[in-house]
Amino acid sequence: MFTTLKKLGPGLLFAGAAIGVSHLVQSTRAGADFGLGLLWALLLVNLFKYPFFQYGPRYASATGESLLEGYYKLGKGILITYFLLNLATMFTIQAAVTIVTAGLANSLFGDISFLNLGIQSISSVELWTIIILSICLLILFLGTYATLDKLIKVIIITLTISTLVAVCFAFSEFESPISLVQILPKDTTKVAFLIAFMGWMPAPLDISVWHSIWAIEKKKDENDFSPKRALLDFNIGYFGAVILGVAFVCLGYFVMFNSGETFSNKAAVFSYQLIDLYTKSLGNWAHVVIGIAAFTTMFSTTITTLDASPRAMSKSTNLIFNKRFKNGYLYWILILAFGTLFIFFVLASEMGLLIKIATILSFITAPFYAIINYTLISGKHTPKLWRPSLKLHVLSCLGILFLIGFGLWYLTLL
């Protein structure tokens, strides 16, 4: 078992990046507000996004190139479009994951508003945001992210076991009849939540680019990281993330549905409510253990995002201009960090608003990634042996129609 776990690489990195806001925030909120009524959306969006995520490690392990090189081969304009879309979304994505991490830090380690030094307008969560971003930058600059990379396996296993145990305890305490009636929201506010819920479930589609970069790095370390092994690695991470998504919906349903309580849009308050979900199910002993597991999970998402976006942007810049820019990664990571802080303070630390903007943007741009990933994996740039099967072709076409259809439906309601 330990040997198998040790061999897992990009798939667990994917799970570590995915199991964050989409699970801890959106899935628990879905269960609390809609019961099990949005399970159809969770399962469908995971089904229809599956091939487009899978094409990242499939292409990378089969060709030795990341998706970015593939986009460039499809046409420079496509890579430029990716560059512009990523530029438009990466700041809100980073801000959304960072504020949740800051809220959990505030819940675990306490209010640090006394550090304001007389600046009354800065809250404790805002201070935690600055501290967390600074720590992430320091870790990445010192090159010790490899340590966190090793810990991610322990973190995910801990959170998975604790979440499944919490769901079992919550189910045993749930006295009402379980309703499996599915809901299709109709008013604009609820549809906006549905689109946001699907936008990051299990993750934004542009993470397929990151996954392809991770697969290349894994292939450098282990020559036997074949396409077949890459797909197995991906499937373990992907379906693990799906199972946890369902578990978080159930947890929100069993503990908060029809309780009169609603999740707050404030990061600090929401974090207390989230940890309290586990405490109610498992007992007071779970507060610190689950709090640390949730914080570490979100911290890994924050640092992974802070590292991966600049790497993708730096590589894209090199390809677009056909020139290697010295310290490109350093410049992009600093741009992302300061841009994140700017958005964070402009939007007055509204966790709910930040998450809604980031997740809706991700869902609306998803058809672009779906179409180009499908085009690349099906074309001449991918060896015939590793092009999609008939089933994957059909699923891909249905997935593209699904993503476009829901995106247009939402836009017509604005």
Q: Can you tag this structure with a few keywords?
A:
mainly alpha; Amino acid/polyamine transporter I; 414 residues
Overall number of domains: 1
Beta-strand portion reads under 5%
Question: Biggest β-sheet: count, sense, barrel?
Answer: none
Average pLDDT confidence is 84
Find the count of extended strands (DSSP E, 2+ residues): 0
CATH architecture: Up-down Bundle
The CA-CA distance between the termini, in Å, is 50 Å
Assign the CATH class: Mainly Alpha
**Order of SSEs:** HHHHHHHHHHHHHHHH
* Oligomeric state, counting identical vs distinct chains: single chain
* SSE-based structural type: mainly alpha
The fold-level CATH name is Amino acid/polyamine transporter I
The residue fraction in helices comes out at over 70%
Q: Please tell me how large the radius of gyration is.
A: 21 Å
User: What global shape is seen?
Assistant: globular
Low-confidence stretches: none
Write a brief structural summary.
This protein has 414 residues and is mainly alpha-helical.
Tell me about this structure:
The chain has 414 residues and is an all-alpha fold. It has a single domain (2-413), classed as Amino acid/polyamine transporter I. Helix content is 78%, strand content 0%. It has helices at 2-7, 10-18, 21-34, 39-63, 67-74, 76-109, 124-142, 145-173, 188-199, 207-221, 227-256, 267-282, 286-321, 328-346, 351-378, 390-413. The longest helix has 36 residues, at 286-321. The model has no long low-confidence stretch (mean pLDDT 84).
